[in-house]
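Dear colleagues,

I hope this message finds you well. In preparation for our joint manuscript, I am sending the Lysophospholipase (Peribacillus asahii) sequence together with its predicted structure, so that both groups work from identical material. I would be grateful if you could confirm receipt.
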Amino acid sequence: MSKIHHSIRSIIDSNIPFEIGRFKQHSPIDIYLKYYGLEIGTIDYRYGFVNCCEEKIFIQSFKPTNPRAIVLVLHGYLDHTGSMSNLINFLIKNNYHVISYDLQGHGLSSGKRAFIESFDQYADVFTEVCETYIKPYTTLPKYLIAHSTGAAISVEYLLRSSSIFHHVILLAPLIRSYAWNLSKIGLSIMSPFVKELQRVFKVNSSNSEYLRFVKSDPLQHNKISVKWIKALSAWNEKIINYPKLEDSLLVIQGDRDKTVDWKYNLNFIRHKFPKSQIRIIKHGNHQLINENNRLVVSVLDCISKQFLQIDHAQS
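The corresponding structure tokens are as follows:
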């Protein structure tokens, strides 16, 4: 067993509560952080598990001294918090307190891998995390940055709840997946005995080093749950009936994305959130935060400008 596999197993087996998990050099969490490129430096770093909606959810907190705001960062389907290291490192360096968790069935959290019965289950965990670990920071502005399925969960939360966030940024948001109609036809003719599909690792970034890394990442899953696809379809039917909202969103989307049906998704978001702003990243693929360096800088620049604009408005 490799060092990272052993460390992941040790972290899961420890079941350490989030309230007491602290960084120690040469420990399993140290190996985890280095493997995924999460640069904690001298900040107050905490990690651990919380019991949430009958699952053990793995949460991490990256808190600089005197943070300017708190940011919840949420990953997409088949990914985990480590997949968001470029974004998390950027936020830490700019003095934002970051909290991030692994979705159930992903990363270090419990749950059947890459599986969900209903997107409501994702939203229930999201809401509980927000109420318990974000809302208590009453003196700090609260921001949300979510990618793909994380963005879908955020949209569900916004459409059904009273949001605690001062601003929301969605990266390559999932509403419908790419080739949506073909996917629905495929579901309708698929044998009821087929529970999983073999994952095809798509070229969803122009960063070849990232694409190689994903294939060897022990926290990635090589199967796609048919039940998950059906849950996404059912969620799409439900959200059509939600009313419009006045929340202001920033959506950052690549124009070469072949993971989500991005043109439909942007139209949907514009309709449900008329005050939303759209930023198109030319030549950007789905993994915007794991693209080549030039495109990642463009994405982070959009985020930075948005936060500076908010900071000035609040000062």
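For the figure legend, we might mention the following. The two ends are 52 Å apart (CA to CA). Residues 3-304 form a domain with the Rossmann fold fold (CATH 3.40.50.1820).

With kind regards,
E.M.
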